[in-house]
Amino acid sequence: MKKLKLTLSILFVIAFTISACRKDKTPGPQGDTGSTGATGATGPGVGAQGVTGNTGATGSTGATGVGSTGATGSTGATGVNGATGATGSTGATGVNGITGTNGATGATGAAGSAGSAGSAGATGATGATGATGPGASSFYYTAQSLSVTGSTFAVAGITQLVVDEGVVLVYFRSTGTTTSYYPLPFNNNSGTIISLSNYGVDNNGNGFVIINSSVNITNSADLRIVVIPGTSLTNLELTHPGINVNSLSSVTSYLHLSN
């Protein structure tokens, strides 16, 4: 009878467990293993084998203890720098090397192209007006002919004022020579005498000079006629009393004559 009750109890537990499992699908923790039931008395027949009790649930594992890591130790102080060693002495300067020989002179380069013309400079200031010149003029006649009856030459620079107050000087040389001019009268001591016969103004107011020659000369007389107004003649006498009027270069230099 006791065995039957035990069997029923086990079946009830199983049924309850199944029912509980059906209501809560999540399996519960495994229970502790139950103690083995007492062996029932041997019945007259072969008794039914008792149902093995459920294995109890496994107990939960205890929490793993976490040991804390010790704090890192502080860095030690930096050691003091050692003293700097003494500077070594400077080595001796080496001797200068031998100077090399001069290389051959290179070929002359091609001439560069001419530079562009620079811009014109500003116009300079006008210089002061120079003193008024003597006012004389000269006239040049080349390869002229001279006649024993007199040859007349028109001279525009001769005016009535020149006739009245000035002077006319005439110089001669042979055409084609480079000798100096000779003042008139000219005498070569070989029978040729050339002289200034007259000068003046004709009825039309034109100046003229008449020259005489002891021999006829054809196209071979160079004449230089210098016309000096009265004011120039006065200046010439006062400032250069020793001037040589027989020298054409002396007269033209003082009178600033270029032709």
Q: What's a quick, concise take on this entry?
A:
This protein is of the alpha+beta class and 259 residues long. The protein has helices at residues 2-23, 160-165, 230-239, 248-255, and strands at residues 137-146, 151-154, 167-174, 182-183, 186-187, 193-201, 207-213, 217-228. The longest helix has 22 residues, at 2-23.
Low-confidence spans: pLDDT under 50, at least 5 residues? 129-133
- The secondary-structure element order is HEEHEEEEEEHH
Biggest pleated sheet: 4 strands, antiparallel
| SS content category | alpha+beta
Shape: rod-shaped
Query: How confident overall, as mean pLDDT?
Result: 77
Tell me the distance between the termini.
185 Å
Radius of gyration, Cα only, in angstroms? 78 Å
Which bin fits the share of residues in helices? Answer: 10-25%
β-strand amount: 15-25%
